[in-house]
Amino acid sequence: MSQPQHSTPVGHDAEVQGTFDRIAAGYDTMNRLMTLNRHAAWCADVARRATTVQGSDYLDLATGTGVIARSVQARRPGSHVVGADFSEGMLDVARRQDPESPITWEFADAHELPYGDESFDAITHGYLMRNVSDLDKVLGEQYRVLKPGGLVVALESSPPTGPLAPFVRIGMQAVIPTLGKVVAKDPEAYHYLTDSTLGFLPPKQLKDRFERAGFTDVVYTPHFLRTNVIWQARKPR
Ligand SMILES: C[S@@+](CC[C@H](N)C(=O)[O-])C[C@H]1O[C@@H](n2cnc3c(N)ncnc32)[C@H](O)[C@@H]1O
Predict the structure, then answer these.
(1) Which of 30-34, 202-206, 231-235 has the weakest average pLDDT?
(2) 65 C-alpha vs ligand 1 centroid, how far in Å?
(3) DSSP-assigned letter for residue 232
(4) What dotted CATH number matches 11-24+35-160+201-234?
(5) Cβ of 154: how many Cβ atoms within 10 Å?
(6) Cβ(127) to ligand 1 under 6 A?
(7) Ligand 1: does its nearest atom lie under 6 Å from the Cβ of 135?
(8) Closest ligand 1 atom to the C-alpha of 108?
(9) Which atom of ligand 1 is nearest to the CA of 90?
(10) Which of 36, 65, 67, 227 could form a disulfide with 43 if both were Cys (CB 3.0 to 4.6 A apart)?
(11) What pTM was estimated for this model as a whole?
């Protein structure tokens, strides 16, 4: 595996990086509140699916405070788990939560992964895709660093669909920035979170993007009034 190198995000990505650096300290609390404490269970499900691949090299991209990475590590204690993110603020929180953890926490921009081809048996990520400036490049990078037969398993928020969509949309616009203001003291960051979710691709279009990147067996499982979705996609052998 090659050594990680720091690239410097620009434009939209630099703004996203700054937002996560700013909210890192209160991120876990806000996540629990916004998901009514469901986030940990979804992350555990992502880890469970990813570790159905028998292997020893796992990458949790956009690891944030490391919830998915730790869950993968707990399921595969002898394996090499990398938790990578481009926010040093989030990585600092991950490192501080368990200084003895064998997980490798390191900088990586999802657009330009500092890993060789076919390095990982499975890749996980939570809430990465709606944040990136070039989704096709990010999926292409995951395809490149995954071993043939490997899996991507991802948790992502999704614009609400179905008959309840208008109500869910209004609820999100009211509740999330208010929590951001009262709890995190950063309404702007949580307006961004709501807007990036409501403006993101609906599941059918995201499935097309996975397939365009070369993945097969792309399946998705919606949760929480379809606002959170677990994705699974395979790199063919
Ligand atoms: C909403 S947090 C999710 C953290 C964690 N996966 C979870 O489920 O709690 C999104 C994370 O994606 C990271 N991120 C966004 N764009 C990225 C990029 N281009 N490269 C690497 N990390 C990125 C952010 O820094 C942030 O830590």
Answers:
(1) 30-34
(2) 9
(3) E
(4) 3.40.50.150
(5) 28
(6) yes
(7) no
(8) 21
(9) 27
(10) 67
(11) 0.95
